[in-house]
Amino acid sequence: MEHITLLIGIVIVTALVFDFTNGFHDTANAMATTISTGALSPRIAVAMSAALNLLGAFLSVEVAKTISGGIIDESAGIRPEVIFAGLVGAIVWNLLTWLAGLPSSSSHALFGGLIGATLVSVGTGGVNGDAVIMKVVIPAVAAPFVAGLASLLATRLTYRVARNRDERDTAKGYRAGQIASAALVSLAHGTNDAQKTMGVITLALVTGGAVAPHADPPLWVIVSAGLAIALGTYLGGWRIIRTMGKGITDIQPPQGFAAQTGAAAVILSSSHLGFALSTTQVCSGAVMGAGLGRKGGVVRWSTAGRMVIAWCLTLPAAALVSGGAAYLAERGDWGVTAVAVLALAACGAIWAASRRKPVDHTNVNATGEEATEPAGVITAALQSVAPPPAGPLAADAAGAPAASSAPVAPVVPGAPGASSAQPPHDLAPAAAATS
Q1: Contacts of 192 (CB under 8 A, 6+ apart)
Q2: What is the pLDDT of residue 386?
Q3: What gap in Å lies between CA 179 and CA 219, rounded to an integer?
Q4: What's the CA gap between 16 and 410, in Å, rounded?
């Protein structure tokens, strides 16, 4: 192993802590829909995802190169304490959004942290603006829409292909498809997110003179980053799994299969191109697309709106925290110590707050008010102005038998068998049809 100073060792440990939080923060990306539909039990699902995250960490280093030598200029005088400050901002933001159950981007928290700390330390010259635009901002905007559109089309195609088949006949096939597609997303997640920590550790080694600039991550870095994200994945970010699986839309097995397949295709393509996109945004967009792709499906836009706000805040919020941490860390050893103490205090407070209403594998699929929220103001407004469906579709949408198309006699007050309490005028025909 290369010669490593104490400060670089602290940076490496902090980077692995971030990788751990990335693992449990992003478990929902691969396994939320599989767990919510019952295709796999929660514990088995996260164990499978952890193993495949570890395997994916060894498949490519293109994203790691983007982090270590693309976004931040290695030759601009970046010091290890700056990277440490960037990681602190990313970790704090990850834990805050985990507490809120919001699937925000761990990747953008990392990018924001590094950018904020670099700007405070060396100024704009330390950030490669072109790389940030081309490999972070553009993929961040485009990827959720691409994944959402792909999942929407895949969901409609899936239901069309199986429209004449008995639901019980297709259940096993969809279950197997969900498991396979979830495994593919987990593998893709390892090829993208695990490499981000590899890139940060490699950047720290470069700034400390332990490895040459533009070098590939050493093998021990790949192994340690893969193990850290796998361990975090196994412990499971149950709060975010609940939001992804139940909070955005009610996912059925065909939708889960379509969403995961679309997300995996986008993530693997971006890993091949070296785009360090947010797997969280890709998978969230895919879930929303799958919700829109099923006839009668409802997306809870209030939850989606909170997620988008969190996405927009992630880069600047992490940058702000990391900028303050960098200012302190550059004061000397006491500054680094102060940043570490403040970070530990913040993480401890967030953990204590999470214990008030714990979410784990035993209640992640709970139903009722504690698990899901109402459809939201946008959906409610659309439903209030939309005309009611006519004919058999109305009954089908409500889960009731279709009403007969034969003429229906009106209900006459006082007639034998008539109820003394009459239904409203616009509901009388439906009431008579089902009587």
Answers
A1: 56, 63, 107, 267, 270, 271, 276, 277, 279
A2: 40
A3: 30
A4: 72
pLDDT confidence of residue 67? 63
What digits encode the pLDDT tens for the residues 37-80? 777 888 888 888 888 888 888 876 666 666 655 677 766 677 88
- Count of beta carbons in the 10 Å neighbourhood of residue 99: 14
Residue tagged 């602290």 (tokens): 10
Which portions of the chain are predicted below pLDDT 70? 1-4, 29, 60-70, 74-76, 167-169, 236, 244-247, 271, 274-277, 296-297, 364-435
Compute how many other C-beta atoms are within 10 angstroms of the C-beta atom of residue 113. 35
Cα dist from 285 to 128, 150, 219, whole Å = 28, 10, 34
pLDDT at 288: 85
Judged by DSSP in three states, 209 sits in coil
Write down the residue that tokens 């192994």 correspond to. 223
The 10 Å CB-count burial string (b at 16+, else e) for 185-222 is bbbbbbbbbbbbbbbbbbbbbbbbebbeeeeebbeebb
Q: What is the pLDDT of residue 74?
A: 66
Contacts 24+ apart (CB under 8 A), 12-15: 12/201, 12/204, 12/224, 14/84, 14/87, 14/88, 14/91, 15/83, 15/87, 15/197, 15/200, 15/201, 15/204, 15/225
Q: 């439906």: which residue's tokens? A: 430
CA atoms within 13 A on the CB side of 413: 5
Q: Which of 76, 19, 26 is nearest to 49 (CA)?
A: 26
Taking Cα atoms as reference points, which of 191, 351, 213, 365 lies closest to residue 279?
191
pLDDT of residue 376: 41
Cα 67 to Cα 133: distance, rounded to the nearest angstrom: 13
Tokens linked to 322: 């990391």
- Tell me what pLDDT residue 321 has: 93
Q: Is 127 helix (H, G, I), strand (E, B) or coil?
A: strand
126: number of Cβ within 10 Å: 22
